[in-house]
Design a protein that fits this description.
Largest sheet: 6 strands, parallel
Number of domains: 1
Number of helices: 7
CATH superfamily: Alpha/Beta hydrolase fold, catalytic domain
CATH topology: Rossmann fold
Distance between the termini: 10 Å
CATH architecture: 3-Layer(aba) Sandwich
Helix content: 25-40%
Structural class: alpha/beta
Number of strands: 8
Strand order of the largest sheet: 2-1-3-4-7-8
Radius of gyration: 16 Å
Strand content: 15-25%
Shape: globular
Length: 196
């Protein structure tokens, strides 16, 4: 049994289009892969403990190195976990400095998927900074998928940080990563080395 962790982005959920496409693909082509898609807390202050608890509850996730897929903020969190536990990750339009971006999100919000209300406070920015990974131990542990017309994040930040990783930079697209499903066979291959 192989385990893969999928981490969605900020203001998203396991019901997102990419998360569901990933679930369907692995269910069809890799039935012995257990895909974990947690609802990540909207509050950055709770995210690290939530993820560490999840891994403690499912030790199979890190048995042979963590395998993760992370979108946007989920890409930032996936990098933190890979640097902590080892393994490899596919990052889709990953956030590189979300603590800068969230400066513009201080205040009250509602998650459009869950309708949960929450508040981003200045201490959340500091919490995110603590999860930053200034240096990558093994850049080749990352497959990084970027689209240049991402309207939320500057793709060049990720292009620079992951310059020595497996980089895929597509012209156009948007933050959701247009045509993501087309990449799922390569994502599975990268994470599982062709093991079915």
């Amino acid at each position: 049994m192989h385990h893969i962790l999928y981490l969605h982005g900020f203001l998203s959920s396991p019901a997102s289009v990419k998360a569901q496409a990933t679930r369907e693909y692995f269910a069809q082509y890799y039935p012995d892969v257990q895909l974990h898609i947690p609802q990540i807390s909207n509050s950055p202050a709770h995210v690290e403990q939530q993820l560490l608890t999840l891994i403690a509850q499912h030790p199979g996730l890190i048995e042979n190195g963590l395998k993760a897929i992370g979108s946007s903020m989920g890409g930032y969190l996936s990098t933190y976990l890979i640097e902590k536990f080892g393994g490899k990750a596919v990052l889709v339009n990953p956030a590189v400095r979300p603590y800068e971006l969230l400066q513009n999100y201080l205040g009250e919000h509602v998650n459009p998927y869950t309708n949960e209300g929450f508040t981003i406070v200045p201490s959340d920015i500091e919490v995110l900074k603590q999860l930053d990974t200034a240096r990558l131990n093994n850049p080749k542990a990352y497959r990084v998928m970027l689209q240049t017309d991402d309207e939320t994040l500057d793709y060049r930040q990720a292009e620079q940080k992951y310059a020595h990783s497996h980089l895929i930079v597509e012209q156009g697209g948007d933050h959701s990563f247009v045509d993501y499903s087309r990449h799922l066979p390569d994502i599975a291959e990268f994470l599982l080395n062709g093991i079915k």
